[in-house]
Amino acid sequence: MKQKKVLDVWTIISYSILILYALFLLYPLFMILRSSVTDIDGNLTFQWFEQFFQQSYYFSTLTNSFKVTIWATILTMLIGYPLAYFYNMFHIRGKTFLQIVIILCSMSAPFIGAYAWIQLLGRSGMITVFIRNVTGITIPNIYGFNGILLVLTLQMFPLVFLYISGALKKIDNSLIEASANMGVSGIQRFFKVIVPLTMPTIFAAGLLVFMRAFADFGTPLLIGEGYRVFPVEIYNQFMGETGRNFNFAATISVVAIFITATIFLIQKYVASHFTFTMNSLNTIERKKAKGLFNVFIHLFSYFVVFLSFLPQILIVYQSFQNTSGKLFAPGYSLNSYRVALSRVRNAVPNTFYIGGLALLATIVLAIFIAYLVVRRKNAVNTFIDTLSMIPFIIPGAVVGIGLVMAFNRQPVVLTGTVTIMVVALVIRRIPYTIRSSVAILQQIPITIEEASISLGSSKLKTFALITIPMMGSGIIAGAILSWVTIITELATAIILYNARTITLTLAIYSFVSRGNYGYAAALASVLTALTVVSLFIYMKVTKSTEITM
Amino acid sequence: MSVNIKIRNAVKRYGNNTIISDLSLDIREGEFFTLLGPSGCGKTTLLRMIAGFNTIEGGDFYFSEKRINDLDPAKRNIGMVFQNYAIFPHLTVKKNVAFGLTNRKISKEQREIETQKFLELMQIAQFGDRMPEKLSGGQQQRVALARALVIQPDVLLMDEPLSNLDAKLRVEMRTAIKNIQHNVGITTVYVTHDQEEAMAVSDRIAIMKDGFIQHIGTPKDIYQRPANLFVASFIGRTNLLDAQLSAEDGQSFLVFANGYKVAMNHVKDEFKKTMKVKVSIRPEEFVILENSTTGIKAVIEDSIFLGLNTHYQVKFENGVHAEIVQESRIDSITPPGTEIYLTVKSEKINVFTEDGQRNCLSGVRNDYEQYVGK
Lengths: 549, 374
Known about the structure:
The complex is a heterodimer of chains A (549) and B (374). Chain A is mainly α and 549 residues long. Chain A is built from 24 helices and two strands. A two-stranded antiparallel sheet of chain A has the order 1-2. In chain A, α1 (2-36) packs across α16 (347-375) and α20 packs across α21. Chain A starts with a helix and ends in a 7-residue tail after the last helix. With 374 residues, chain B is of the alpha+beta class. Chain B folds into two domains: 5-229, P-loop containing nucleotide triphosphate hydrolases (Rossmann fold, 3-Layer(aba) Sandwich); 237-361, CATH 2.40.50.140. Chain B is 22% helix and 34% strand. In chain B, α4 (137-150) runs parallel beside α5 (167-184). The longest helix of chain B has 18 residues, at 167-184. Chains A and B meet through α1, α20 and α21 of A and β6 and α4 of B.
């Protein structure tokens, strides 16, 4: 009968997590759904859906989003895949440096890239002005479709690179040798052996890029101008200065979730035809490329990485420039840092406080959920597993709106608090942390826990003394990556923040939107520095320069 | 503080799938008892029921007089050794061994003493401060065994503990396990699918198949007088021949296909009649006669010289193949193609009913019979 009592501890944890999900995920989603089908007075209506689908002004935001997302996904593949292939198959000089820069690029907030590119290629951008002065030619417009595509592609190809690199490392060298034995090598091998073997990863990376690009909000807001995409439309309907319409914002959100869910399920279905596991004993040996090809892969690698890193360089440079009003002035100083940090005094402490709380909550919840999913399979825990994946397909802006709709009224009022910021960040990050915790836990044989129990430890004691320490390094590594994504998160937080809960990323955005580029650059450099430090801690912890997502 | 284990009418189900339907068993105090059978026979399932990691759907489990069905695994006072060792990789060897003691109310000094004692007993004292990943498979196995024994468990459970070791270490470790068990005198339940290993370590063996126990006995009993055809063919190698049993004036005879007739002395009274039987003849129970016309006619197809013994593959007239083992002779090996006659060592061979369920000879000692029909 004693056993029953111990079972209850985990059952209580199970139901507690279920309640958290119900309150912070299902309830907000329900509020969005309800708003989308009610009018201002609360009566059932489909007028918002009719309005959305009948007026091309609104509907076009969806087709625009699709167009730019699909192109971004394709382009990131076309850049990220060859880069990963060259990087892992051939010797490239300075490859560790290259890898660190690529990881750094993937970790910055996209909107920072957008505003940097405006500085470079915008109407009065440095490069635009330079070319016009020298040649008299006005280069094509950066704003709109082209700009969004440029920024998203440069932002996301590092993700593809990291995913594909991970997959290439799992290919056993003997497969390469075997194909050479059978007379297949070079470009033929690339298409007949390498690409098929990495197919599952291509799908996984493609889905991730699609979801992020589709839901990205900061980039189109800054650089999109007349090219209207749906996350911006949701934001405008919800937060805009004129013509706010909560119900209509909810309607667009519902359509967006429907689309991302459909894409998610299609991807699952297609990818399920390409699943296999590989366990490589010998990873692929890098070869030295010959002649022109060697020159080409070096040029290609360094050029795309340079393009991707350019915004960061520009921002750090600008952060030291003097400013006069909103314009940059000659000379260099730390003025921007001084002014920016004093104007938003609490941004840095908030970043650590809110980010730290969110990180802690994410890790604790993720470990518990992973344990329930892996070690205590039952109907309730399978349901929790499914619930935990839902945030993966919900655009950040929608999470924000849902939380506002749910918690700006009785019975639970949370808007404007630190709590709601933490909740939002946890919801955004937890699917990834759960996935990685599950993967770690599945590597630990259950007999190790049984050994501990048979030696007289209770189940909770075993969990604390054996399971968690064994998950240790994996959890810490995952936590550092989570930390970086938490401190650069914008789409959800921008809907929820106020002066008391402003973070670095939000402060940067607020400076950018007011045109205070110098101050924005200073804070963005601080954020980059934080990211770099986190990254080096990660490398110390994992004792490797590689990152697996 | 050893115990005897009593299991009565155990049932194990996974959903609608019954793995063990009705199993009873007694393991004596201080005994080295092995559950042996092919994979999927339910031996590990039964062991994990004793350990408390599998639920029990029916029947009763006792350690001495104490019913343990609902006792938490942490409170059963068992030492368990797992197939993959299950060493805690984040703890040193010493901390691994001491782990079970930290869950008990004993002083720190006593804990140190006990840990050291078992580290020395298992000859791993010099590795005390190492991390487990720096140890070889055999050394890790010693850590696992020390960790299981240091808590002075009532019962030691071992789940295929040697299957991850290479052949040489396996032999070495099984001797070590046998000696330690003997010295400590702890009731031990050992699971394996390796019949040679089972024979080498066990006091008694239970042969299992499809969730049922086929035979419980000493290694010698099981090898020499197996309870049924499955046990005969699972333990050691054997050749199966069809034959006929007959009785004349109270004397039984075995008649083979070509008329070769052997007098049998141990046939049970109920089988002293004319009936079709299956004969199990182990490779060493044949005698090869080259210049003779009595016996079963056969042709040598191949021979393998293995030093101590020579193995012959032969084919009978009816097309059936058989394997024969002879002590190697100093003169030449009988070449393939040679026609030979085979006689059998009648006191050693076993005769089974045609369905293979029962041994027709007397002398079968099967401790499982006491539970049948109850």
